[in-house]
Each structure stands twice: as structure tokens, then as C-alpha cells.
Amino acid sequence: xxxxxxxxxxxxxxxxxxxxxxxxxxxxxxxxxxxxxxxxxxxxxxxxxxxxxxxxxxxxxxxxxxxxxxxxxxxxxxxxxxxxxxxxxxxxxxxxxxxxxxxxxxxxxxxxxxxxxxxxxxxxxxxxxxxxxxxxxxxxxxxxxxxxxxxxxxxxxxxxxxxxxxxxxxxxxxxxxxxxxxxxxxxxxxxxxxxxxxxxxxxxxxxxxxxxxxxxxxxxxxxxxxxxxxxxxxxxxxxxxxxxxxxxxxxxxxxxxxxxxxxxxxxxxxxxxxxxxxxxxxxxxxxxxxxxxxxxxxxxxxxxxxxxxxxxxxxxxxxxxxxxxxxxxxxxxxxxxxxxxxxxxxxxxxxxxxxxxxxxxxxxxxxxxxxxxxxxxxxxxxxxxxxxxxxxxxxxxxxxxxxxxxxxxxxxxxxxxxxx
Amino acid sequence: xxxxxxxxxxxxxxxxxxxxxxxxxxxxxxxxxxxxxxxxxxxxxxxxxxxxxxxxxxxxxxxxxxxxxxxxxxxxxxxxxxxxxxxxxxxxxxxxxxxxxxxxxxxxxxxxxxxxxxxxxxxxxxxxxxxxxxxxxxxxxxxxxxxxxxxxxxxxxxxxxxxxxxxxxxxxxxxxxxxxxxxxxxxxxxxxxxxxxxxxxxxxxxxxxxxxxxxxxxxxxxxxxxxxxxxxxxxxxxxxxxxxxxxxxxxxxxxxxxxxxxxxxxxxxxxxxxxxxxxxxxxxxxxxxxxxxxxxxxxxxxxxxxxxxx
Lengths: 420, 310
Hints:
The complex is a heterodimer. Chain A contains 20 helices and eleven strands. Chain A is an alpha+beta fold.
């Protein structure tokens, strides 16, 4: 009798186990810095909670390489990867390959994220992916040098920045010939698109293409913004700034050879590292505003989307919900300085203790301007290249702002053709 | 390829039988190679040519529409030119690639020849020098390109700050091409020297002894003996280097970034169209054009200089 009961209960247990159907989900994580470890840890917590298994797919480091690889997977309708980590500019390109999360996730849960980021992830009303961590352009400055030259606060406008940078540069160059006032991402690539969008937007010149797909770049304020940026070259910025990317700019700032730097928040953690020459001397502020405009920061960051070809969509969606949840974002913010996409976390004491500038720059992260990737969809990269090339020509003195935005509007119209 | 000098004097029928059997045998032995070639080279080439005739997107290649030669040359009813041959950036890329190829291959040949002549003569430490000169060639191109990008940096670079006093060569695409040529010459001269050295070593030494006896100067020996005898080896080296230079990609991509690379190399333009812009059809058409350009140049080389590859 006892044996019979044992057999019955054992069978029942097996039946129950097979009903809950533990599945294996493949998650494509980035591998830059601490990213991979944090990704593995989060996935492990989810599997412990749900009993499912997560396989980590290690993606290439470079965004462009990653996109190429993902496109191959998606074009082949491969079910190998269930959850993809998506750059904030990709939803427009890849929307057709992802599950619409709207309706599958409670609206309250979606609305707890910054609206701007959710908008950037929405293409034609379809929520392609859920925000995971965010990025926005910041102005880094040398607190010690500002004090030395009699300034009490970072610049509020680009004109102020130019004056301050010039004064500090002239003073410092007496002892250090390589010292420069302001470094940013001037190389002709996606980074220049981010920087130049900040200039144009802070002058009140719009966002290149507006949310309805109308080309708005050909306006006097945008032209003025580009001319202003061109005036920095050889004046407060080195001629070679037009070959700098994020790391080149950081290299100069971190070795103590620049007063101001435009960069992403990651530069904070590196600048405070033990090998940094400017450790403890860095301040972070919102980027300056143009005349009559307000400061603008370009939105960056990564999101999680569920492949439309996944065989376990329900579990994959659950994993995305878990990883983007406040609890998980808090851990990532404390351990890796990843900016949360949930406003409430910017008031969390533990998060603020690890990242003191999160609190003071809250408005920068809430008001970040998205690049026009959603309205331009599959043609975003072409639009971005046309924009950065035009800006690059102005910076290198090959054309003037007004002529550049006029011809840029024509070339974007050509790219648009019959529609984005 | 053809064997026209078959001796037919003794037992012609049997000989032909053996030849035929050998030919049959050769076909069977070649077959695996031919199949492998068809799979790894023929099929991708066929797909590239196939897609070049379609308007297709990298993210959804099965939703394609037939365009014919529209990827090459096409003007919409609104007068918008969409073919890549109508894009001035493509022609800038072609011009820059050809400039890069002609100048860098010329300089590499001249310098390679000088180095080869030096290390071919007997002196102490020759073996060491022969090995040492290959160092630039042994470094992976992406690594050396990044290294040079740092050296050209205007604020901390050895060349940009130290030699040029704070000029940014790579900032301007017009000056950047010369900086790129310098990097390629630095990197590939040793390879050229090695190819030429191999040719030099096959030249008989007693010939020079005879020339010395006849009282020919070293200069005359070089122009009258070395150079003519070296011609076959030199031409093969030239063809190889030219092909390499025409499909240069990594130096531009690493040192200039993806957008400017598309205006300095044909392959950079193809990559930008195909990967960054997802234009599978247009990118394939560009690849086909590069294939044709390289093929035409090889045919001109081979026929004009009567290069023999055997």
C-alpha cells in the first residue's frame, strides 16, 4: 500500500513538473566592461526564481558588428536567440522582427520608465523593446581649474563655455603646451551625430527629422549651432578633435589635458579610477544651452526585446520584465553605474551613494533627446551618416552652416524618397 | 595549359592511351577541389550577382523586388538619382582607391627593391636583418592601423605632435589619403622586399662574376642583368600587391571610421551600403562593380606585361 502511494505521488510530482514546463531562454548580452557579469547575475536570479534556464549569448563589442550579426540571425528567422539587447537607435530598423510588448505587459509597468525612452522604443505604435539602462550626453569639467580661474559654477551657455575654456586654456598653456579647452566627439561617425544633435537642439534647431518624418534641419538656428561649433576648432578645441571618438576625448581629459569634455556617464566611473590623473577633480553638469534655447542631451542606452521567432515567447517576455524591473535596475546602478530608466530610482539613497551625480543631473536623463531613429526607420543610418558628414564638413571648414543644412535637407530628402 | 609538344615518334597509340587515362585520373583528383571552390567561391559570387539585380534589404532578404540594373543606374520619376554610379561619393572612393593603389604599390616596389638588394649582399647580421624587416608585415593590419592612428594624433601622437607639431592629418580626407599611403608603405614594403629577394636569390652568381670580368659597373649590372632577369618575379609581386591594394579595407576603416572610410576605399563604400545601410541589393551591386574593376585591371596587367603565373 505504501509503495502504491509513493508511486502515485511520484507520478503526480512528475506531472506537475512537466506542466510548469521549465524552458531554456537564450539571452544576447553585451560584453563591454562589467556588462557581461551583471547580465549573467541578473539572468541567474531569474532562473532561480522561475526554474527556467538562461543561456547567455556573448555579443561582439562594437555596436556596428553586433547589428550585423543580429541582422543575419533575424533575417534567417532563427530561433537561436530569444531575447536581444538592442541599441536605442535600432527599434526603427528591426521592429518587424520583434514581439509587440504593448498589451503583453501591464501599462503601469511600461509607464514607470522615462517616457522619452519608451517613445524611442515605439515604432508605429508597436513597443519593440523595454528600456534596460539609459545614457545621455554630459559636460564633464575640472573643478580644480574652474576654482583656480575664479569660476564658481560650470557654464550655462555655449558662449560661457567658450569664454571659460579660452581663459583656462590660455592660462594652462603657459606650463603645459598640449593643454586644450574643450574636447568632444568630432570624428565623422555616430558619435558626431549625437554631439551635433545636442548643439542643434540646444539652439532650438529641432531634431533633424521630426517625429512625423518631416525634414526640419534646414533652419537658421541649426545653421547657427553648427557655425558656433566650427568656431571652437583651433580656438578652444584642438584641430584633431575632428578625429576624436569617446575614448580619444576621454584619454585627453583623463590625462589632465582638457578643461571641459562632452561624454557619456561611463566617463565618470573611469575618471574616478585609481589610474586617473584627474581623480577627485571632476564635476559633471548638464551640457550648455544655446542662445534662447535650453540644454539638450542626446539619448543613448540599451533595451531588451523579444524575438518574434522565439519558441518560448511567454518565458522570454517574463525574463525581459524581470531584468527591466526596478529591483534589478537598482542592483545594476549600484554595482556598475548603469543609469536606470525608472525615475523613482534616482531618489534611491543606495543608488545616489554609489553615483552622486545621478541626483543632480536627474533632469538631463528625463529630458534626453532621442535621435530621429523611430521616424526614419530602416533609413536611420543613412540619415545619420548624411548629418554627421555635413557637420564634419562645417567643422573642417569645407562649408558654412547655412549652406550645409540646406544641402543636408536635400540629401535627406533624397534618402527619404517616397517615404522613410 | 595545353600540351602541344607531345612527342609522337614511338608507339603513338599507347602513349595517347596513357595520356587519356592520366587526364581522366586528373579530373577525378581535381573534382573535390572544384566542388569546394564552387561552394566557397562560386555560390557566394552567384548570390552577390543575383542580389545586385534586386532591391533587397539585409533584414528581410526574401522581400525583394526585381530592379534589373537599377542598383547601378536608376533615376526616379521625380528626377532623384538612386543608382550608386550616380553617387559622387562612390567616384570619390574609386579615385582615392586608385590613387592609393598606384602610389603605394610604386613606393613599395622601389623601397622593396632597395631593401632586397641590400639584404641580398653578404654582410654580418644579414640573417637577423632579414627576419627583423618582416616585423611590420607580421603585425595584424588592424593593430598597426590603430597604432598609427594614435601616432597621428595631434595632441599626444609621435607623428602628429612630435614631427608635425600638432597637425591633424587624419581630420581632412584630402590629407588623410597620404597618411594612409604612408602606413601601407611602412607595412607592406617588407613583404615586397621578400618577394623580390626570392627572385634575386635565383639569379646565378657566376653571371655577375663574368660581368665583373668584362668590366661592367655595378650600375650597368643592375640595369642590364638584374632587372631584366628579375622581371617575371617582379611582375607577379606587382600583381599581387595591386590586387591587395585595390581591395584595401582595414586601414581606412580603423583609422578614419566607417563614414569617411566609405569615401576613401571602394570596399568601405560597399560595407557601408550593405551593413550600415542594410541595402543588400545596392551593396551587392557595388561588390560586383569592385569585382569587375579588379578583373579588368588584372587582365590589363597580364596581357600588357605578359605575366606568367607558372
